[in-house]
Amino acid sequence: MRKRVYIFFAFMLLSIVACTNIHDPNLSVEVHISELSKKEFRMVGTKGFDHPTINDFRKFTLDVKMDPTDEITARTIHIPNGLERVINTIDRERYSYGGGFEQDNKGENFAKYRQEFVFYSKGLSESDIKKAFDSAVIRVSWVDRKTVTKEFVIGDIIQFN
Predict the structure, then answer these.
(1) Is residue 51 left, alpha or beta, with left meaning phi > 0 and alpha meaning psi from -120 to 50?
(2) 63: pLDDT confidence band, cut at 50, 70 and 90?
(3) Burial of 129 per CB tally in 10 Å (0-12, 13-18, 19+)
């Protein structure tokens, strides 16, 4: 009887391991709001702002990195267009300048996305900034025996440095 119980549990454990998706990619999604360097501040167009200082501006940085395993047959990374315009929905034109890049070649075994922009932050709390990005969602999906999708609400993952 005892031997049957051990065999049963061993079978159940093997079944769980076999059905578990053990090929999840190494996925990193990070959003940081940080202070500007003096060099970055010199690039800011300050026309239209009342006596702006370096402390009146912040930099938004989004990094998405995915290093999938060889078992993944497809991947899709969706980052909302116009993230820099989201900050303008609070109360006024706050976007100053920015840019980004993506490297997501289908034949390569990784993907990298980066977006950065500088915005006028005077009068905004961390809560105001997070709330502005609550409607912006990053969706990452891949296929490994089944389709797996993960969603990241930018307002929930913002870190302030």
Answers:
(1) left
(2) very high
(3) buried
The CA–CA distances, whole Å, from 148 to 1, 38, 66, 144, 152 equal 40, 43, 14, 8, 14
- Residue 57 within a domain: yes
Model-level pTM?
A: 0.82
DSSP 36: P
Work out how many domains the chain is built from and give that number. Answer: 1
Inform me whether the pLDDT recorded for 118 exceeds 90.
Answer: yes
CB 29 within 8 A of CB 157: yes
Residue type, 65: K
Q: Which two tokens stand for residue 6?
A: 């051990």
Considering the domain boundaries, does residue 8 fall inside one? Answer: no
Domain containing 118 equals 23-160
- Is there a domain that residue 141 lies in? yes
